[in-house]
Amino acid sequence: MKIKINNKECAFSQGETLIQVADRNGIHIPRFCYHEKLSIAANCRMCLVEQVGVNKPQPACSTPAMENQEYFTKSDLAVNSQKNTMEFLLINHPLDCPVCDQGGMCELQDQALMHGRVKSRYEQEKRVVLDHYIGPLIKTNMTRCIHCTRCVRYGEEIAGIKEFGAIGRGESMEIRTYLTSAINSPMSGNMIDICPVGALNAAPSHMKGRTWELEEVKYISPHDCVGSNMNLHILDNSIFRVVPHENKKINETWISDRDRFSYEAMEHKDRVRKPIAKINGRHMEVEWEQALEIIKNNMTDIDSSSTAGFISASSTVEEQYLFQKWLRENNIFNIDHRVSQSNFDYDEEDIFPKIDIPIKDIEKCKSILLIDSNITYEQPILSHKIRKAFLNDAKINSIHTYNYKNNFDLKNSLLINPNYLAETLIDIIEYLSIITVNDKTLKKFIIPESIKKNFKGLTNNNIIEVSNDLLHSNSIIFLGSNLKNHPDFQSLKILTNIISIYTKSSTCYLGDTSNEAGAWLTGCLPHRDIGNISAKHHGLNIKDSIIKKLDSYIIYNLDLIDFYYYSEMKKSLESAKFVLGFQSFVTEEDKNLYDVILPLATSFESPGTFINIEKEWQSFAQGCLPHFDSKEGWKILTKLRLESGVQLSNSLDYIDILNEVDHEIRNIKSIESNKMENFIFDVKSNNYLTRTGGNYCYFIDNITRRSISLNTVNKNKNLVCVNKKTLEQNNIDLEKKKVILKQGEKSLLVKLSVDENVSDDCIYISNSNKEHFELGKQYQPITIENV
Amino acid sequence: MKDKFNINELCYSTLSSDSPNSYETYVSQGGYVTWKKILKELPDKKEIINSVIESGLRGRGGAGFSTGRKWSFINQDSDAIKYLVCNADESEPGTCKDRDILRYNPHALIEGMLIASYAIGAETAYCYLRGEFIDDVYTSFKNALKDAYQNKLLGKNILNTDICIELHDLIGAGAYIVGEETAMLESIEGKKGFPRYKPPFPAVKGLFGSPTIINNVETLASIPKIIGKGPDWFSSFGTKDSAGFKCFSVSGHVNNPGNFEIPLGTPFKTLLELAGGMKDGKKLKAVIPGGSSVPVVPGEIMLETNMDYESIAKSGSLLGSGAVIIMDEDTNMVEVIHRIARFYYSESCGQCTPCREGTGWMFKVIDKILKGKGTLEDLKTLESIPKMISGSTICALGDAAAMPVESFVTHYKNEFLEYIKLPTEKLANNKSFSEPLNNEFILSRK
Amino acid sequence: MQENTSYNISSEISSKINKWLAKFPIDQKKPAIIYALHLIQHETKYIKSEHVNAVADFLGLKKIDVYEVASFYSMFETEQVGKHTISVCTNVSCMLNGSDEILKYLEDKLKIKVGDSSEKYFLKDERECLAACCGAPMMQVNHKYYENLTKEKIDSIIDGLENER
Ligand SMILES: Cc1cc2nc3c(=O)[nH]c(=O)nc-3n(C[C@H](O)[C@H](O)[C@H](O)COP(=O)(O)O)c2cc1C
Ligand code: SF4
Ligand code: FES
Prior knowledge:
The complex is a heterotrimer of chains A (787), B (446) and C (165).
Chain A: E1 2-5, E2 8-11, H1 18-24, E3 48-51, E4 58-59, E5 70-72, H2 76-91, H3 107-115, E6 138-140, H4 150-159, E7 164-167, E8 174-177, H5 190-194, E9 200-202, E10 215-220, E11 229-235, E12 238-244, H6 257-261, E13 276-279, E14 282-285, H7 288-301, E15 307-311, H8 317-329, E16 334-336, E17 354-355, E18 367-371, H9 375-378, H10 380-391, E19 395-400, E20 412-415, H11 421-435, H12 449-452, H13 461-470, E21 475-479, H14 489-503, E22 506-509, H15 516-521, E23 528-529, E24 533-534, H16 542-547, E25 552-556, H17 566-575, E26 578-583, H18 588-591, E27 596-599, E28 608-611, E29 617-620, H19 633-643, H20 654-665, E30 690-692, E31 720-722, H21 724-729, E32 738-743, E33 746-754, E34 762-765, H22 770-775, E35 783-786
Parallel strand pairs in A: 1-5, 15-16, 15-25, 18-19, 18-21, 19-20, 21-22, 25-26, 26-27, 30-34, 31-33
Antiparallel strand pairs in A: 1-2, 3-4, 3-5, 6-9, 7-8, 10-11, 11-12, 13-14, 13-27, 17-22, 23-24, 28-29, 31-34, 32-33, 32-35
Chain B: H1 23-28, H2 33-41, H3 45-55, H4 67-72, E1 83-88, H5 97-104, H6 106-120, E2 124-129, H7 136-150, E3 166-171, H8 181-188, E4 212-216, H9 217-229, H10 231-235, E5 245-252, E6 258-263, E7 266-267, H11 268-274, E8 284-288, E9 297-298, H12 299-302, E10 306-307, H13 309-314, E11 323-328, H14 333-347, H15 353-370, H16 376-389, H17 397-411, H18 413-421, H19 424-428, H20 439-443
Parallel strand pairs in B: 1-2, 1-4, 2-3, 5-11
Antiparallel strand pairs in B: 5-6, 7-10, 8-9, 8-11
Chain C: H1 11-21, H2 33-44, H3 49-59, H4 63-72, E1 84-88, H5 92-96, H6 99-110, E2 121-124, E3 139-141, E4 144-146, H7 151-163
Parallel strand pairs in C: 1-2
Antiparallel strand pairs in C: 1-3, 3-4
């Protein structure tokens, strides 16, 4: 089918609107309310064009293209209509472009220049709108709002949490939240981008710079496992703001608030500014040469079999590659990155965070099962995909230990105690094993006896529904990233795998860091070498390395509270002979545990590569030069390798490293299956009061937990939540509002919130400060007492 | 066209009785016979729709679109749920005809809605009354509906047929815009009354996303007799293109204001006589012939005009909802348009730019002129704003606000000029509206 | 809108709302917002945030959805108003028949300005035409129609309200 726009013939397909056809053909039509990702509102009336034979101007955004029609976007009728709309819009819009953040990238400003009249005839008073505080991330200036309702539709349609509304009517209509509510969506920052004027601004960078002074560098999210693409806007070698970079396969045009605002951490007081060394028992800042000298001396002294190196799974592939290389060259084989994992059974045949289908295909799934995943807050981009599937009528079920807030609706929502997670999955397997008896493709598959032993005859209707839904074609199971420190984590992975075999579902083991895949593929593991193949020399896993109190530890880009074995780790460091840190940040307290700390550039200040959950390699250039006296990880590690006598070219460049990594890893076929033969599952009868909850979504890594704005979003994050029944069973006096928690020797006075979203016999703590980690561990017994 | 006619023959037929709104009165006049006949004979839906097309009935809500043709837009072959909505939001300034149908002849409306539902294949029909009717009018209609249910004229398997039609009363909460048909759908769905952009039209995608027909109270209340007495009976009244009867609400400077149901095409003079002629024997200055949204027509032109769609269009206005507002020689036209402009300013829903910003701008300029602070430049601006709004908004409220302003400035420019030239002291003594309602107050809506 | 504590929807109102919901497709809850607000306002005279919260919770909707509706329709009062609402139609037909004088008379009689409220009376600034143009001038008192007003007629209506307990 064809239409003519400005005498140019354009093909279109049924249902397309005029603006879509024009956009595709490079014909510009001005617009404010239209946004390709949002529903059509047709309220700004900026896109009016002429349709031959129709006497009224037609809005291009809502007019369906009609076979053989002719349209003009620059005829007198069109241009006059657009000018009229501009004049109306400017009636109540302040002319404060010189002080507006949006200046220079403002759609209104651009279009006023292109389509406006030079002088306004309106001379009455302009509308002034009071601003309400809506949280630390978005600074509003609602007098500038042109009521395009993009932000309202974004909330309803994309974020799935309607927070903005249009209140009142007519000229006094205001876009605002309900009363004084703050915005709480984990993807709220995108509203700043889609607002065509300067009504919604990024609070941290508000009034701090002008658009035309910025330099743009593409970057990959360092915080979640999908690798959202974004652009860093650099001003004077600092990050001024972060905006999305379109990637149709991953984040489309959105990024999460975490990715947008975490950069604030760069200037945090914990930042390691210069090399630090313990000299005569005192920590002092030293020059690089001196620090390297100390390291060199120690490295020759240490007993390599009693040394362990731990690296963050948020470090770049290049750093991880060089880190393990440097250690292995020094005969250190106790290498690990699985800091938050508690259990290492079956790790020989373990598989790492992955998704079986492309991220962009999640929206096509017809059935989705979430296993204890707080996905909306922890992996917002994936949650957005699930939301799309939901809007596409997918059935979404969830088995969880807390009724997480999602931006999609659940069909079945099973709230269970974390100690019964594995049993619940076995129930599903039991049902599936019966329902699929006639499936010939499953003939060869045998369920391990230790699972069968736990079959107990089915009753639960929800289980049946959840299982049946999974039998749909195109289903996927997500295993939450929080489960990593669950004592049954390894079993849960295997059980999930069995379910996926029965139901032919895809699976996704979520990660909570940006480059876990990288850490596996580069061999940052005691039992795997580069390329995820079995290691020549097996080392100790992280748990044993910590518990066995080795002589020396090397810690790369990790806070101590990143460790599941936090308190054990502290003790081991205290007794170690030599502790070396490569850190961008260190707390005053942790600093005392190190002998040397090298100031590490953050990934914002270094080029690098992250491998996401679908094994997509994404490299990025250096955003800005390293701040203070810090240096890029690849440079430091290369220097150390040279120092330890490895033969390397002197002119080694970052690109050489990237090429080397690429060459060594990219095409290697790695081990990738759970073997089930030796799987032994035993039901533990854990009927004690259990601590649950994961890390607060803005406390997951050393960067996010230091970004001030993000960490002021939720005032309630420090609460401990318990349901009423559990409180009554433990004789808690609800009047007092505060309780004492005890784990082992430790105790903590906390604010209590009665919360029916918590499962029975559980204390839910969303870890968001050091005390939470000092109290004790996740999934361990805990007691609650009156003050 | 017949020369002789009885006034109030169709929608107001029960007015002659003592208890006009009772079920018994309606039935005694032959009410519900048509509906029962349909239930018995179960005629083809197309047959009914064709009768309505043949009768020449045009929508009485304002736009005057052929009712039968509108119904024929429903795709009868699709098995989608279909809805009928009766627009009882009557709020066009000057209009009060539907209120009297709801109060005095509710059963005609109910029967009309049932026949319409049958014809378009709807099993659910809603009658949406404006919020301000919540007391007397709503109660009267609800009681009638109850009677109809009690007599089993609607509901499940009506009179043992396969036909099921539920008719529900709904109530608004004060918003002129909700009279616009798609805004009404939004309001029924429990949202703000923001009109929807078209296409898609309601007959394709309306209430809750299903095909929906929306008709005015008077339109629907006319249906039973049109079907009962036949389309020819109806079209024997009125003119070729304006068939049948129409209710006119005559208000303003007349001796006997009221609703008069007369054949279309009746001379305006006759209508004015029915309304008792001009109050205090004054001269007719101007007439707004179809509710405040339509252009004003100078008296001398109006006196030569007949009350039908074409004649009024020829005299430069629209028949609209049939609200005839009569103004005598002493009327201050700047004040009148100031009042009308204020109304549209506060009733604009705020959704689309030209209407949200333009209605306020027009009002503020008129207000400035009325306060004696206007300039010739302002008058020029005032002439151009309506042209900027017209045709560029989502719904017709933009046009409704623009047309009166444009026409008042065209026909009574000299009065505006007087205000512009008038020294302020003189203005202060200028009779009734010496102190236009405080502007600041008007700006804050609530 | 005032912020306040909590409000419980009475069982009488809730059963009315549930009946109302039966008019609509089963998954539709929003269509009851307007009606629920009417019922509550009838009791409380104006809508406070706790009422919005209660309606949202009762219907399982977002508060902002309810608030949007409450702020859009002019019959919903979101600021404190007096017991009796008096709305004088001042639109064209009524204006031509002297509604401005009627309004002025009421302002003086009740000693409040249009748009203001005393404890007992709320003289609403009615922008809409109230569809009784042929009975101009007219007013609504608590949504009851009073047409063809004269000063005497107003006196007797107000006296009636005064004598009411
Ligand atoms: C701003 C505006 C207000 C309207 N108000 C009413 C109204 O109060 N009552 C009514 O019946 N139609 C009103 N209409 C017309 C309706 O949109 C619609 O055309 C009518 O209900 C269709 O019914 P009909 O075909 O029977 O006339 C209004 C239209 C507009 C644009
Ligand atoms: S705040 Fe921005 S995005 Fe939202 S309605 Fe106003 S102009 Fe549009
Ligand atoms: S872009 Fe078309 S009306 Fe706004």
